[in-house]
Amino acid sequence: MSWRQLLREITEQLMTAGVPSPRADAEQLAAHASGAPRSRVRLWAAVSDPVSDEVVAAVRALAERRARRIPLQYLTGVAPFLSLTLEVGPGVLIPRPETELLAQAAIRAAERFEHPHVVDVGTGSGAIALAVATALPQARVTALEPDAIAYTWAAHNLRRFPDAHVTLHRAAAADLPALAGAGADVVVSNPPYLPDEETPLDPEVRDFDPTGALFGGPDGLDVIREVISAGSAVLTPLGVLLCEHTEDQGERVRALCAEAGLSSALTHPDLTGRDRFTAASHVPVDTMTATRSEVPA
């Protein structure tokens, strides 16, 4: 069998199973099974190189599991996030592309401070904390994760980036004031925010994502309230709080920020134009980009 034939077979199998990106997933499964980069697999398919029986069997076994809608990242063991490759598996939320926008906003907010302290509340795999720490070596990052399994995954990923200045705590949003020390220049969170009665449409989310990382109470805002309350209490004068949420929660999140004393709040869209996260500060939005030295006396 050639690589071209194998990829065509697996792509058709995944398409029939309703996998959203069957060709891309087929290539990634083949790359994982063969131990070769995806670009090499695509080259082999383009020139119709032969593939060994052992690799055919391995790819087919992975494809059978993917056709049951087991997340691709659980099968390959890795998930990309910005410039990082994180290791993931059952029990931890798979980093989403839309959360990359939240991480980038946290980096932009933090880089305006000379030695920023950034707190990632509910770090999960450690994605946001590591994205900030690797982008800004001068930053001090504190990561909080209350769930035991997710905490283990975060600790594992942090060990893979020993130069990143991240301190991990088994803690929740309510513990933030006790852990923030002199305060935080940026508080960032991708908390559970789905209402408890909502049923995710994608089988990968519905059947495999940890429920504790998805559901945030009757209105989805229970953990967001804790993040905003604790975060607003520890922000430095020019600090910024950033929180991800559903596309229809922006107005309520902005109201919660105002109730917590954050006078400036702005909701940002994701790449599809849907509201995705809100940034808030104690100061007007036009001074959120100021440096620490510009804090009014």
Structure notes:
By secondary structure, this protein is an alpha/beta fold. It has 2 domains: 66 residues; 217 residues, Vaccinia Virus protein VP39 (Rossmann fold), CATH 3.40.50. Helix content is 42%, strand content 17%. Strands 5-4-3-6-7-9-8 form a 7-stranded mixed beta sheet, sandwiched between helices. It has a two-stranded antiparallel ribbon with strand order 1-2. It is elongated and about 65 Å long. The relative contact order is 0.10.
- List the strand order in the largest sheet: 5-4-3-6-7-9-8
The name of the CATH architecture of the largest domain is 3-Layer(aba) Sandwich
Q: How does the overall form come out from the CA principal axes? A: elongated
Going by helix content, strand content and strand pairing, the class is: alpha/beta
Give the helix tally. Answer: 12
Over all CA atoms, what is the radius of gyration?
21 Å
Quick rundown:
The protein folds into 2 domains: 3-68; 78-294, Vaccinia Virus protein VP39 (Rossmann fold, 3-Layer(aba) Sandwich), CATH 3.40.50.150. It is 42% helix and 17% strand. It is built from 12 helices and 9 strands.
Topology (elements, then pairings):
Layout: H1 3-16, H2 22-34, H3 38-46, H4 53-67, H5 72-76, E1 78-81, E2 84-87, H6 97-110, E3 117-121, H7 127-135, E4 140-144, H8 148-160, E5 166-169, H9 176-179, E6 184-189, H10 203-208, H11 222-234, E7 235-244, H12 250-259, E8 264-269, E9 275-281
Parallel strand pairs: 3-4, 3-6, 4-5, 6-7
Antiparallel strand pairs: 1-2, 7-9, 8-9
Helix pairs in contact: 1-2, 1-3, 1-4, 2-3, 2-4, 6-7
